[in-house]
TrEMBL record:
High-level lineage: Bacteria, Bacillati, Actinomycetota, Actinomycetes, Mycobacteriales
Database matches in SUPFAM superfamilies: Lipocalins
UniProt xrefs under Pfam families: THAP4_heme-bd
Highest taxon in the source lineage: Bacteria
Organism whose genome encodes this protein: Corynebacterium testudinoris
CDD domains registered for this protein in UniProt: lipocalin_heme-bd-THAP4-like (cd07828)
Domain (THAP4-like heme-binding) ranges: 7-158
InterPro entries noted in UniProt: Calycin, Nitrobindin, THAP4-like_heme-bd
Protein name: Ferric nitrobindin-like protein
């Protein structure tokens, strides 16, 4: 596939990643989940499509999903634009550090829009650390009158044979 020049350095993300995560927040009970993240590319387009889904670890019941786009910028910055059925959209800005088969994507600046009927979220931050076929994620959130703090952690592995050249 011919990748857009802004997307080509991120081709290692393309594919499906599976694993487990843990959630915690002062206003809820701790929980564990199964997570699937998929990055896909369209030929020549300057973005990657992003989809995330979670299920309860014990029951398999659906928990959360979000869809969006990773938009690498010519100046080296990155943007992540997400929509969630809980009533939020997120526009995150950050940086990418790419060294060999290790990468760190840090989104530390966010604008969150809440629908009229959603529980309000004030701000978010995300990190994605890729080391070979392991993707470690964190999600921080300010909501429910709480300051921004860690809400989710997950460790995912890339599905075998699911790469940019497959």
């Amino acid at each position: 596939m011919d990748y857009h020049p802004h997307v080509a350095p991120f081709a290692f993300l393309i594919g499906t990643w599976h694993g487990e995560g843990h959630g915690h927040y002062p206003t809820i009970s701790d929980f564990r989940y199964i997570e699937t993240v998929t990055f896909t590319a369209l030929p020549g387009k300057p973005f990657l499509r992003y989809e995330q889904r979670t299920r309860h670890l014990d029951t398999g019941a659906p928990m959360h999903t979000e869809l969006g786009f990773l938009r690498p910028q010519p100046d080296g910055r990155i943007e992540l634009i997400l929509a969630q059925p809980t009533g939020q959209t997120e526009l995150l800005h950050g940086t990418a550090e790419l060294i060999d088969d290790r990468a760190t994507l840090t989104f530390d600046e966010s604008t969150v829009s809440n629908s009229r009927t959603s529980k309000p979220v004030e701000s978010t931050a995300r990190t994605y650390i890729i080391d070979g076929d392991v993707l470690t994620t964190t999600f921080d959130m300010a909501a429910a009158g709480q300051p921004r703090q860690r809400h989710l952690d997950s460790v995912l592995r890339k599905a075998e044979g699911d790469g940019a050249d497959d």
